[in-house]
# Entry
Amino acid sequence: MSFDAIPKFKEKAYQIAPELLGAGKTKHPFVIVGSGPVGLTCALELGLKGHDVTIVTAFDFIPHGSKAICFSKQTLDIFDRLGVGQRMVDKGVTWNVGKLFWRDHEDPVFQFDMLPIKEQKNPGFINLQQYYVEDFLIDALEQMDNVDIRWGHAVKEIHIRGEETTLTIETRDGDYPMATRYVLACDGHRSTIRQAMRLDFEGRIFEDNFLIADIKFTGEDALRRPSERWFWFDPPFCPGGTALLHKQPDNVWRLDFQLGWNIDRDAAIRPEKVEPYIKGMLGEDVVFEKEWYSVYTFQCRRMERFVHGPVIFAGDSAHLVSPFGARGANGGLSDAENIAWKLDLVLKGQADASLIESYNYERVMGADENILNSSRATDFMTPKNKASLAFRDGVLELASEYEFARPLINSGRLSKPTPYYDSPLSTPDRDEWINGPAPGHPCVDALVMDNTCCTWVLGALGNSFKLLHFGNNPPNTSMEIISVPTTGLAAERYDAVDGGTYLIRPDQVVAARWKNASKSDVTAAHKKALGFS
Amino acid sequence: MKLNTKPNIRDHDNIYDMITDLHHNMTDDESMKANAKLVLLLANHIGDSAIIKEAIDIASQFGK
Ligand SMILES: Cc1cc2nc3c(=O)[nH]c(=O)nc-3n(C[C@H](O)[C@H](O)[C@H](O)COP(=O)(O)OP(=O)(O)OC[C@H]3O[C@@H](n4cnc5c(N)ncnc54)[C@H](O)[C@@H]3O)c2cc1C
# Structure
């Protein structure tokens, strides 16, 4: 395989497979395929939990170019648990405010806040180039003795026979087989594994083209611009289309312009074609250098199932969304988070193998929500017919004066964690709760103060099963307990000012909760959350 | 609550007039947009997606 056309951020060293030198493991418990954000996150989580991790990846580099830039609060929470969150936040550009503009109106028609619940450790979003995310994850992985990243090792074929799966790995020194119990197929939207297994990938293809100009400001202009997300409908510099402006680290800005269909994609990225758009958005006198220009189209589709026997699909290999809403990588990282703890406990013999199937249930639900949201955003931005256009423009005309219309404006509903309704792992509520995260919902953060120190709830929960107890008479179980006072923000956010106990999964999703938990309540709910029926 | 499909407005001729008059001197495109705004304003006032869904189902029933 040749990847000459892909720009490179960092080269990585290919090494000949030990198998080709007569050594190598005979059978792996699992193999991770792909070194995108999803594969790397699975690897770090499983590596930190003590497993021997092997990643095979077709690339022998970290790709550069224009891919994900917006990483959500939930993603940062996951990265915190893996010890890489702070580095991402430090390097990233933090933003919470989004502004929507229409035509040539100077003032935004609407403005929104990405972190409606304040006082949480992480910001609503950061912007950080995907190659930094990958680089930081790789740095953490490279420090671990139990992780083997095989750069330039591509899966070519897969053979499944009962409990034994064999991957044929192709390298520049020849092919070799790799036997494994499980395969985590994080091999991106063109997934070799999905294709080799002849699996479906259904959905909608949108025939629209978007121009991305990542540029670096070299004048003084950059310093004056706020780190907000600016979005235009039908601006004078891109009539009939949409446009987006977003800040990234290193003074790089992402500009995105909707070009419509039937365009010459090669011509569209020539500097003389791109620059009028840039100047239209930022003014004639803007001083900049080109980072990367590209044109992309997108699709909204997913596999019917993400679990096929021993092969588990995660990230773009399993589902694709439009970029509006930043749900691609963020959604994929929720997959990683969901499968990693399950595989960990199944491999350690602490959970039932059926736990893997619950990944299918929960993440198909997550993917559907992401696809629904990103398809709706796309339909708002590119109305399908005259009537939809009339509604879209009607909303935008009403919005500046009438408040009710503002939330209808859809420039992408930015990624939020999906609740897992009716998850087979959840124990339904027995008590009346007014609010707080219900079973299947992600935990909310809050700072907990006591005389000596203060801790974030999410930080204290970590990535193993915990009981989050409000009050001072926790049920008498062997499970690790995080005790929180019944006064303060955390108790309010968990609807537990009168006490209460939450059983929290390793991915910080609520498994069960009680106003008054007994030991047997906790034991039964824990068993259920481990897939034992 | 359920969508009320019994006569519910006393000055029906007047309301009908107001709604059609809205389109006086409008091009088809302008009319379509005005109708869209009207639907959205009323839908927001009703505020109950079950009722709105009932209305949509009825609206989509007859000859296209
Ligand atoms: C313009 C653009 C903007 C985007 N913006 C955002 C955003 O702001 N936020 C967001 O969340 N998402 C965004 N996305 C989506 C995001 O980039 C993807 O969802 C993300 O890269 C998916 O990660 P992944 O790990 O699943 O796959 P990929 O990143 O595609 O990685 C696939 C990996 O598989 C490996 N591989 C492929 N074939 C084989 C093989 N046969 N054998 C071994 N290895 C193989 C490759 O080497 C690679 O390492 C954007 C995408 C685009 C195009």
Q: What stands out?
A: The interface with chain A takes residues 29, 32-37, 39-41, 44 of chain B (CB under 8 Å). Helices of chain B lie at 12-21, 28-46, 49-59. Residues 28-46 of chain B form the longest helix (19 residues).
